[in-house]
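To close the chapter, one final illustration. This time we ask the reader to focus less on the individual chains and more on the assembly as a whole: which components sit near each other, and how the overall shape emerges from the parts.
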Amino acid sequence: MLLFLQSLTNGLNLGSIYALTALGYTMVYGIIRMINFAHGDFIMIGGFTLFYSIPFMDSIGVPKPFAIIIAILVCVAVGVLTEQIAYKPVRGHGSMTALITALGMSLFLENLALVLFGTTPRNVPAMFDLPNITIGNISLQGKTLLTLSIGIITMLLLMIFVQKTTIGKAMRAVPEDRIASALVGINVNRVITVTFALGSGLAAIASMMYVTSYVSIKNELGITLGLKAFAAAILGGIGSIPGAMIGGLLLGLIEIFVKVYLFPSWYEAITYGLLILVLLIKPTGLLGRKDNEKV
Amino acid sequence: MNASYKRHYLINLAGIAVLFALLCLLFDTGILGRRTEYIKGLAIIGMYSIIMVCSLNLLTGYMGEFSLGHAGFMSIGAYSAAIFTSLLALYEISIPAPILFVISLIIAGAVAAVFGIIVGIPALRLRGDYLCIVTVAVAEIIRVMLCNLSIPAITGSSTFGKSFAGIPKIADFHYVFIATVICVTLMYMYIRSRFGRAVIAIREDYIAASASGLNVTKHKVMTFTISAFFAGVSGAIYALSITSLLPTYFNFSKSSEFLAMVIMGGSGSMTGSIVAAPILSALPQIISYVNADFASYRMLIYAVLLIVIMIFKPSGIFGSYEFSLERLIDKLSGRKNVKAVTVAGGASIEAPTTAGKDDIGEVK
Amino acid sequence: MRKRALSLLMAGALVAAALSGCGASGSSAETTAAASSETTASAADGDTLSFGVIAPLTGPHALYGEAAKNGVNLALEEINEAGGVKVGDKSYSFNAAVICDDKSDSTEAISAYNNCASYDILGIIGTYASSCTKAFATQAQSDGLIVITPQSTNASICKIGDYIFRACFSDDAQGPAMAEFIKDKLGAKKVAIIYGSNEDYCTGLYESISKYFDENGVDYVVYECNSTDTDFSAQVSKVVAEGCDAIAYPNYLDTAPMLVQQARAAGFTGGIVGGDGWDGADTSGLEADFENTYYLNHLDFGDTDEKIQNFVKTYTDEFGSDSLCAAAALYYDSVYMLKQAIEESGSTDPAVIKDALAAIDFTGVTGHIKFDENGDPIKAFTIETFKDGKVTYYDKVGGEA
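The assembled structure is written out below.
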């Protein structure tokens, strides 16, 4: 029983990180219909930024959590630059081109980090000093609660943003009908840039939670995390914000429970197998809307 | 077979024979001295890369579907060939090397093709982005499977996840060259056959194609399977020449590298693949030869090139251009009335601008 | 028009890169520094004896590659300054014909081997990763080239043939040493073994550790993971639930900090023990967590032994201390071992040298080495622990009886 509850908390912890990452994916896909393969690498960049900015904050006497501001700024800059330089010119050339460009961008960021920082994994200094709560025999780390709450708050804020603000409405209009949106005066380019900026900002926050839980960073950390988070986004229904949240949490829980109770060395296969199953049976995911194809 | 086809095949056969003779001269007479083994090794790497990249081109260029998990089929082929030859060695059954080579390749291709069918039938109902993710997922599952399975009698250890070494080295340069030529020819013939043309039609506009009566799914699965078959063959050659396998070698990065080779060579151009594959696969060795420090920049340059190509010339360096020996000879001999050999339709990643359709369904 | 020009340009760039590589014949391949004046290959031609070096100069283990290269060059410098290698009456200068990069990838390792073999060499000193060494050792055996692997610990390597040796301990010996340490020094009653089931190294160690525990009646549980995992919460929760008092974690340095941190966070206070793969692990920020953790290593650089201190001094004087790690010392020792074997055999024929190598009694920076019938050295293990996150010497076990 204890193991079960402990696994639950572990799963939620892992799941929240997947969920935060998946939020970024789903936002970009929902608005621009493009899988941003480089999203995982934005998180890696966030991680490296934190690696340098946390000691920096320390040295100028500012409390460490403020390092996230620098990380957000860097990630947003990288995201917007990526969009302007690589994705914008290929917009409208078909999804294949966009996919390959995204892949190229992902490779670029990974190898740039390789060249700049080397391949040796580094430990990021701790940002928060949170106590561990022990209820009975279960240890609930303060970090887990923080990750979970940040995830939920971010999701709620995002939903409010998309539903209530003008630009949020614009963000919902663009994927429906791009030409009509332009006709009613929406600046499509600006909407897309804002989307990327938001997505990258989310990546920065996800990176903060990642380094808090899993101290070590290296240039390849974006690959697996990106793939799994993307799987989570699809599981929950790509394009749906609460879907990404639920998909992420579900994926984390499944991974942990498979590892604990079933086959620890097969857990990746089961995760991906589940993804394939979902794609085959209900491609729009748990909470996705059915996108009808017009002939 | 009509006269022009005969002439066409004859000329190409002659051209390949000349190339083969040149290479044999180079390697067998020891002109290169001590460097022979090394350059032969690079040549073999180049050749199985050609098969792999051509097979991926079949899928990505001609059929227009994205596969980021092709290394998975390669690994299945590699392990099949390795297990087969090791089993034979274990039971001390000995078969002459050339025959063993051919049988291993066929078995490897067949097993990979079976996996291709298993994956293709359900997956190919999806398109575009979703199919891409499914291919990645499948490749990962294959990798996990290979990491955790084993046949202790052969490997003498608990899992394949440990490196599978000591595979008999029967991939001699000559056999590999001939195998490569045969594979590329087969793929080329497939493209130019009516199946190939149907596939191109599906790529251009699948709704129109199915409205014209083509069984879209059947053609897609067939192409997918054939592509998987040749990926398996490529893997077999890999196993039989490198003699040591590690399942984690065939990962997502490897798949993306091969895809990058397809794109850079030109999706939709066999010539592009044949030219790009050996150069790009031998590049790591060449770079470390020139300056070991550049090795870390290699992938960086690939990535930049990929993005630049996508922005400026999405159909790749060779686009849809196909080299034709016959055309070259005709031009050189100044023959008038040159009948252009039918060039297999190239892929244009650049969807036709006005009538284009978003793969997920919105009409622009 | 512009597009065509662009594609021609790109094609030209690719071709140029290819041709420029082929054209430059051996001029800029990494060759040995310092004493030997000849920069290109050709061993045993007149005055030089050569060997090839394979190391992970780039790739995930580039840290070790840098150290390896420096270790080799340092050894060559010293040997040549002291008069070179003496065979019979003649003195030869010792030379690394080429230092090839295997990028920790087994396919590249084979190409690297082919590259080395194209020079006139006696043998190869390399490489780090067991899967890479395994890739070319069979070929080397049939080509009649000596292989001394400085750091590949997988047990099956030396069994490939009589030309294959290693300068480090084998996993067949390292596993029981780890297990013995856990049982005797830590006094553990129930041990959890967490190992990466997808890697040669980890699985090999797991097998020899569990075998020792079976033979000595120690209670243990096994949890698998991937060597690339970052989340060990499932495994450590089970460890705590089972009430284990020690963890054996025979995986690599990149995941060691994560496991240690997560284990401590889950409330595990027992000892955590690793193998030589931990060397170089980053402990910054986790100093408190790394108390009561240990790992086996080839040597400790704080050891007061004269040979070790000499090495540390000469190495840091020439190369600085950033890249100083076990790899440097092991490659250094391998070069010296080869030299001693050549001199003792009185011949420049690998077939004769290998016999001298098999019978050698060698003392180097990393300790005293004598080979058993497989070509595996019987060597001592240094046990390191962490004080304030810094690697500190703890104990030494094993070695020749």
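The first helix of chain A runs from residue 2 to 32. The mean pLDDT of chain A is 85. With these observations in hand, you are ready for the problems at the end of the chapter.
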